[in-house]
Amino acid sequence: xxxxxxxxxxxxIVKRNKNNDPVIRWISAFSALVSVLAFVxxxxxxxxxxxxxAISHLDIARRVIEGPTQGLAQLGGVWLPxxxxxxxxxIWINGLYYSGxxxxxxxxxxxxxTIVLIYKITQSLTNNKLASIVAAAVFALNPNVLYxxxxxxTELLLFACMAGMVYGVQQWAITNEHKYLLGAAVxxxxxxATRYEAWVFLFVMIVIVAVIGRRKxxxxxHIEGLTLAFFLVGAVGIAGWLLWNVLIFGxxxxxxxxxxxxxSLWVGAGEAAVGNVLVAFLTYYYAVIENLWxxxxxxxxxxxxxxxxxxxxxxxVLPILSMTIMFPFFVVALQQGQRPLHVMQITNDLxxxxxxxxxxxxxxxxIGYLVALAxxxxxxxxxxxxxxxxxxxxxxxxxxxxxxDIVTLREPIAMKQNVNTAITQETSQYLASHYKEGTILMxxxxxxxxxxxxQIPLRNNVYEGSYRLWxxxxxxxxxxxxxxxxxxxxxxxxxxxxxxxxxxxxxLNSYSVAFKNEGYVIYERRSS
Amino acid sequence: xxxxxRKNPLRRETSAKLLVGNQKIALxxxxxxxxxxxxxxxxxTLTSIxxxxxxxxxxxxxxxxxxxxxxxxxPLPDIPPLSVNDPDLPTYTLLIPLFREANxxxxxVRSLDNIQYPNDKRQGLLLLEDDDVATRFAVExxxxxDWIDVVVVPDVKPKGKPKALNMGLAEATGTYCxxxxxxxxxxxxxxxxxxxxxxxxPDEVACVQARLYFWNDDSSWVTRFYWTExxxxxxxxxxxxxxxxxxxPLGGTSNHFRTEALRNIAYAPDxxxxxxxxxxxxxxxxxxxxxxxxxxxxxxGYRIEMIDSVTREEATANLHxxxxxxxxxxxxxxxxxxxxxxxxxxxxRQMGFFxxxxxxxxxxGTPISLWLNPIMWGLTITYFITRSPFIESLxxxxxxxxxxxxxxAGNLLLFYQLVGACLHRGGFGTVKYLFLTPIWWAFTxxxxxxxxxxxxxxxxxxxxxxxHDLHKDQAIETKQQLELESKEEQTGVNTTPAKQxxxxxxxx
Lengths: 528, 508
Fold this sequence. Notes:
The structure holds 2 protein chains of 2 kinds.
Chain A: H1 22-44, H2 52-65, H3 82-91, H4 94-99, H5 101-126, H6 129-140, H7 143-148, H8 155-175, H9 178-192, H10 197-215, H11 220-234, H12 236-249, H13 254-257, H14 277-292, H15 294-310, H16 318-322, H17 326-336, H18 344-347, H19 360-373, H20 378-402, H21 407-416, H22 419-434, E1 439-441, H23 448-454, E2 461-462, H24 470-475, E3 482-488, H25 497-502, E4 511-516, E5 520-525
Parallel strand pairs in A: 1-2, 1-3
Antiparallel strand pairs in A: 3-5, 4-5
Helix pairs in contact in A: 1-5, 1-6, 2-3, 3-5, 5-6, 5-8, 5-19, 6-19, 6-20, 8-9, 8-10, 9-10, 9-11, 10-11, 14-15, 14-17, 15-19, 19-20, 22-23
Chain B: H1 21-40, H2 42-73, E1 92-98, H3 105-114, E2 122-129, H4 133-141, E3 148-153, H5 161-171, E4 176-179, E5 185-186, H6 190-200, E6 205-214, H7 221-243, E7 255-258, H8 259-264, H9 289-299, E8 303-313, H10 319-339, H11 344-351, H12 353-363, H13 365-386, H14 389-393, H15 397-424, H16 437-454, H17 470-490, H18 498-507
Parallel strand pairs in B: 1-2, 1-4, 2-3, 6-8
Antiparallel strand pairs in B: 4-7, 5-8, 6-7
Helix pairs in contact in B: 1-2, 2-7, 2-13, 2-15, 7-15, 9-10, 10-12, 10-16, 11-12, 13-16, 17-18
């Protein structure tokens, strides 16, 4: 502090105060509690690892630290690396790996962050705490969000990054402080290292930054500098990913056209939405309704339109409205056959229906905005908030209690009930009870759950990501100390690389069939 | 005030010799041990060297971002400047060393006259080199204000700014003193702000440093990178160091001192060049005497703070001259680091371990990291081209991941800082030049290697020429004046219509 020197009065040193909103602490604590309760609930039901992809995410993280060719290259070139990198600090603990908690924790933390960000975005938009709490609750209590945040899937991390981008750009638009713009760019960097949807969103946000600059009447150099700065920081992850694909796979676009990345692997030729914009539109529309519920979707639509009109597309509103870009993006992606998505109303089955959950972000803010519109009258605000919270809580309660109304959970459960899953599980069970030791040659793609369900250490698996081991082992398994060979044959499934490389080949002479069902055959090496 | 200075500080040493006996022995032993180890256990030795390098990188990058974080979280204290009519204003000496700057003299004097301070309480000293006939002639042609005097610095080796400053200090009569270079354009109220800061802070604060900016950031890609680096250095590095109570290596100019503190820490006359002793506030052999002085102040228990005032400077637009300037900075940092590691334990004990360590990390660490960078990039590129099993074998998994994390996160953070610096001070036109960052980084490493090569040679005064962007300087002066008048008007002092001034400002 200032002191007196030579008896002269000391000039005051003015320090700036920070503005802390106590509601944020309460929201953080509450959402953390809800997050843990939801995880415990779904974990007790044994459904946190229902998605095969959930197990694949865990496996990728685990293979970085365990495996015959452990290392960063195990991150591969198809799925983006951030969720796996974040899981590494916990993935080595068996309990957290097999329970999925090592990955779920990332989703849970992202869930809390997203709720806080939605609160802040709505608060900046409406300056109404009650309305902002309602917005946060719309997201926090959505049953599909609650389920997905309990899994090691990557959606929640994407939501947090997108919310971070929106919040940063919105704050910059309001305050002109560049630190927010850079923060948004960092969120964009994280998002583009999480899911490919964020790439689209980042580029949309780059345009939004330029448009806001224009709306603020900045000169061309100013707009150019801001946009480029946002791009340089935000897109560095994309550049890094292209470089990674070059270094590891020799092709910058391996993630797009590589053997394990082509859209044709997931999108069948006869997909209803491919080439049909109307079906594609309806498919995504139903996916949104299934995830959000009709009443929330309707309120979102009303809220967004009101916001756009009433706020006259003001800079603080543009980043929020930009989140709706994901709707046309998915329609185009479905129509182009880049993404597969099935809903009961169109194809009578469910596949990737969680893509529709992305619209919960604009929905939450839009509903908060609607509540704030009633703020001229305090009684109306309280009534509107109570009504929305009642509806949201009822949806959550009904969904959770009946268990059948969480579409993102219904999908993997339905998938598990088909005959193919039973075949895979039978194979896992055989290995779990008969495998003692030795290296297993098995392709991971399409067989993701077998090693995990059998709880066999990944260090004993030579698979397509085993650098310098995979191809030689496919030629001569016995010469490479392979004890077990698991192959998906041409019965119930599409045959895998192990089958096409070794079936009926002399290389199998040292092995005998130990197990066979409609989908798999397991060979064990004969004792010499 | 004298009570602040330690009673028995370590004897302050000059950089007349780069290395002293114990340092030479330590270096030779280290070299011999490394060579023998490389011959006997090549892989473990290389792995050990890499581990040390990575730890060093982690510390330097960590320090950089800790400072950035601290600065961003702690705005500079807002100390209102003293009134120019304050009857208790202290006396102030302005030290202005000039060398081969005849072209700058006129604009310099105009700029000095622009500074708000009562003439009877300020003393300007133009420090002219005896053999610099052109500058002396240019000064003689001017009708200098009464408060500016000339000090002629004897033509004695070593040549350089610190020796001139020592001569100036001997003549200084001010309670406080400040250094300005010929091309400097300080905020007109900077002295009043500094005086207010000295009044606000306790006596142990012996120096307050103003921030330096380049006015000609858009002259060339070189000035753009210089400008960006200065923003990072003065906005985040120095501010962070000051905030944490560490030792900010001072910028070359616009550092304001309690004159008595400088006299307290001065070298003994027998340590100074014969015939040009003056008062030894600065190390005549150190080519970044400002950075060294920060250490000397810390050694005697003084502190340094930053003030919310700006001095605009001219950056060199020429790559060759920039190279010379960087070599001087890097060599000076190296000299400084080596001086304060001559008796590391005693020095660390006297400065405080963390203060000493961060100071050494900054002074020695800067050139070392520039030497290491090309080696590390070379190793990475070589590996990806050759996939050499030998290179692989040098990196056990923990070291490998540590290295990858440092490479990715470190470079990302440094790049983020560059982008942030551009936006922080409105350098929007500079952002696109950041695509040249790898070239700039390669250039800085080049300068560092030249320093290494030239180390054994005697130093020469690589004075950076200025004045190529004087037309912009004129605009800055006008802008500063208008800003000041505008401020005065807000307080009701002046009568020019505000609208007219805003129009003039926009035009500038």
